[in-house]
Amino acid sequence: MKKFKLLLFILFPLISFAQTSKNKYLDFDGKEISYSWFKEVQSKGILVGQNDDGTIYRLIKEREKSGKINDYKELINNLNSSLSTDLDFKKPLFIYYYPGPDATNISKNPNPDGSKIFRNDTDIFEKKFQKEINGQTLFLYKKESKNVYSNHEYMPWKKDPNNEIEKRFFNEYHYQYASFVIIFPNGEYNVYFGEFSYDYVFDYVKSWKKKNK
């Protein structure tokens, strides 16, 4: 089986969720379950979604979704206007989406070289993405953290304007580490929730290219 290099700020063998009387733990169908059962299932590597307050945690069965938007050009124009970017609506757009600090992406002892490694991996990805499909990239955050902030030394992070991208693609839960969406010029998109490898992006690229030959 092919091993993917995950793009994580910090990697924990098991995510730690504090048990308090205020927290709720939900199964795949949104039904409340005990903390112990939640932890048992989550320990098998299941994705967890949480609300912004970190008081509701849900087991997530599907990590991918796809669909189509009818206003890709307008979306690009709005992003350019809000972020002072020069994105092109004739090109595919990859958005790396960081939801904000949580138990999975904050550490008391972060790797001092982590940001450089992330930048190097991203440079390789961006060059390949541009070569494969003339793609463009955007790195957005909802809330700042020590790893993600507006004057980051290595990455061009920008604040999600009016939570536009979150509302469109990540509106239900806050997912572990980060997620991504790739949007094609015809409005078709693919979303992947939670920790991921850049390799996953090219799986969607291949499928889209094959479909639209």
Can you summarize this structure?
It is built from five helices and eleven strands; from the N terminus they run ββαβββαβαββαβββα. The protein is of the alpha/beta class and 213 residues long.
Explain this structure:
With 213 residues, this protein is an alpha/beta fold. The protein contains five helices and eleven strands; from the N terminus they run E-E-H-E-E-E-H-E-H-E-E-H-E-E-E-H. It has helices spanning 35-42, 72-83, 114-133, 164-169, 198-211, and strands spanning 24-26, 32-33, 47-50, 56-60, 64-68, 93-98, 136-141, 158-159, 174-175, 179-183, 188-192. The strands form two sheets. The chain has a six-stranded mixed beta sheet. Strands 2-1-4-3-9 form a five-stranded mixed beta sheet. Strand 1 (24-26) and strand 2 form a beta hairpin. The chain starts with 23 loop residues before the first strand and ends with a helix. Residues 1-14 have low confidence and may be disordered.
